[in-house]
């Protein structure tokens, strides 16, 4: 760095906001609750337990619990905190006298995150990577750093409504195809089926085949994950391209970008800095959980009553955004109360350490799970039932909650955080702490 930007370095320990670190730690560990199905089961089993991993007994209880409390909520909080990180970084540097170089540093940081996302997906074998999407939509955030909370909430609301509208459009179109499919079954002579009805029938059959993956394809995908490293890289490459292109543009603007903007608003309103009263956070919990869990229960019952049918999943998706955002608010209220209370300090310290090392710990999930589940290591992919995957989750949680605070006792950053900061500021950052004797 040149002399004019030498003081615009990474955030120091005294500048950190502890509640944000704790919330980030909760979100980071919580994300693994959902991602573990992608690590250990075929892609389509993520939301549909009938595909692989079991859909009865403990497996069903786990699916219901995740669907009610965690689906989309941890990702929402993680996205919110990414938006907050942009504001903290840029505002701190501007206060120190930074000018145009602030934008230079911010965009360099974001572009490196894009690169990390490509490496994470293609090389570290996690097609569910979120870093690429954060890097992509992070490019849009800088102009919003001085936007008022009201305008940020409106922008997030508009994006969310667009997503709901698109889901409604897709649902209406697919239900029309289902109607045409059912109508086609009434024809004894298939050659008499009108072309428009036949087209709808074929569209519905294609959707069912895509979402209710045939057992043969499930077995082929499972076998592919038991291959050697380079074979898995080639097998996952098309999935990574899909996730980092089509999925990124069709879904993530209404999911990730909306939550980033909402997170900035919540920071400016002092909601996620544990500065509001206990009463405010209690109201936030009651209203968030009251609305969110009601919506999620409604969705869960739709799916269960129709035995995990494609039509049921389509209908449940209409209210998905409402349920996940509301439950996220409930989670935030609960975590902020925990941050304000002087209880379970060891857990609070550990969660904050996990949050401070979020990038390292997130990538560590993928490295550990690649060793456990793929042919690179123990080839357990597709061999565990859904509930058994959570033995792995709990083990990783315990490991990271213990190791993260120990690591930060001797080092200023996690190893990947250190690398990211060094690349961002184009200068090797101090790594080891000075331990007094």
Question: What's the topology here?
Answer:
Elements: H1 18-40, H2 57-69, H3 73-95, H4 100-122, H5 131-138, H6 149-184, H7 195-211, H8 215-224, H9 229-244, H10 246-250, H11 252-268, H12 278-305, H13 310-316, H14 320-340, H15 345-356, H16 358-373, H17 389-410, H18 415-425
Short précis:
The protein is an all-alpha fold.
> SS-based structural class?
mainly alpha
How many domains? 1
Average per-residue pLDDT, rounded, comes to: 94
Counting DSSP E segments of at least 2 residues, the number of strands comes to 0
Terminal CA distance: 32 Å
Q: How many helical elements?
A: 18
- The value of Rg in angstroms is 23 Å
In which range does the helix fraction lie?
over 70%
Which outline best applies? Answer: globular
β-strand percent reads: under 5%
Give, in order, the helices and strands: HHHHHHHHHHHHHHHHHH
- What does the largest sheet look like? none
pLDDT < 50 runs, ≥5 residues: 1-6
Describe this protein's structure.
The chain has 437 residues and is mainly α. The chain is 70% helix and 0% strand. It has one domain. The chain contains 18 helices and no strands. Helix 12 packs antiparallel against helix 13. The N terminus is likely disordered.
């Amino acid at each position: 760095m040149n002399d004019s930007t030498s003081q615009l370095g990474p955030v120091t320990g005294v500048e950190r906001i502890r509640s944000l670190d704790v919330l980030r730690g909760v979100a980071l560990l919580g994300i693994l609750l959902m991602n573990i199905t992608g690590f250990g089961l075929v892609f389509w089993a993520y939301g549909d337990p009938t595909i692989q991993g079991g859909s009865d007994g403990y497996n069903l209880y786990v699916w219901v619990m995740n669907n009610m409390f965690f689906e989309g909520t941890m990702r929402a909080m993680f996205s919110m905190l990414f938006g907050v990180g942009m504001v903290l970084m840029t505002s701190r540097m501007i206060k120190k006298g930074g000018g145009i170089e602030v934008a230079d540093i911010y965009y360099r940081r974001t572009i490196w995150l894009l690169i990390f996302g490509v490496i994470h997906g293609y090389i570290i074998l996690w097609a569910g990577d979120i870093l690429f999407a954060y890097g992509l939509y992070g490019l849009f955030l800088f102009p919003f750093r001085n936007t008022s909370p009201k305008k940020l909430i409106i922008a997030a609301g508009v994006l969310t409504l667009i997503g709901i509208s698109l889901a409604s459009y897709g649902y209406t179109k697919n239900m029309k195809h289902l109607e045409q499919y059912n109508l086609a079954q009434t024809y004894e002579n298939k050659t008499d089926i009108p072309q428009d009805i036949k087209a709808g029938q074929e569209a519905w059959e294609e959707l069912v085949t895509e979402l209710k993956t045939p057992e043969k394809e499930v077995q082929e995908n499972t076998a592919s994950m038991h291959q050697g490293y380079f074979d898995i890289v080639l097998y996952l490459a098309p999935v990574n391209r899909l996730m980092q292109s089509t999925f990124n543009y069709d879904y993530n603007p209404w999911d990730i970008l909306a939550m980033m903007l909402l997170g900035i608003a919540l920071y400016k309103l002092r909601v996620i800095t544990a500065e509001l009263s206990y009463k405010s956070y209690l109201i936030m919990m009651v209203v968030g959980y009251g609305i969110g869990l009601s919506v999620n229960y409604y969705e869960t019952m739709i799916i269960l009553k129709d035995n995990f049918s494609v039509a049921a999943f389509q209908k449940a998706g209409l209210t998905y955004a409402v349920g996940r955002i509301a439950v996220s608010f409930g989670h935030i209220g609960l975590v902020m109360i925990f941050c304000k209370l002087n209880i379970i300090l060891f857990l609070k310290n550990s969660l904050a350490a996990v949050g401070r090392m979020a990038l390292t710990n997130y990538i560590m999930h993928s490295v550990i799970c690649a060793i456990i589940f793929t042919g690179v290591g123990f080839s357990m992919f597709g061999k565990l039932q859904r509930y058994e995957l959570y033995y792995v989750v709990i083990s990783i949680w315990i490991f990271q909650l213990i190791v993260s605070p120990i690591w930060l006792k001797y080092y200023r950053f996690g190893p990947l955080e250190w690398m990211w900061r060094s690349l961002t500021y184009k200068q090797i950052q101090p790594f080891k702490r000075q331990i007094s004797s």
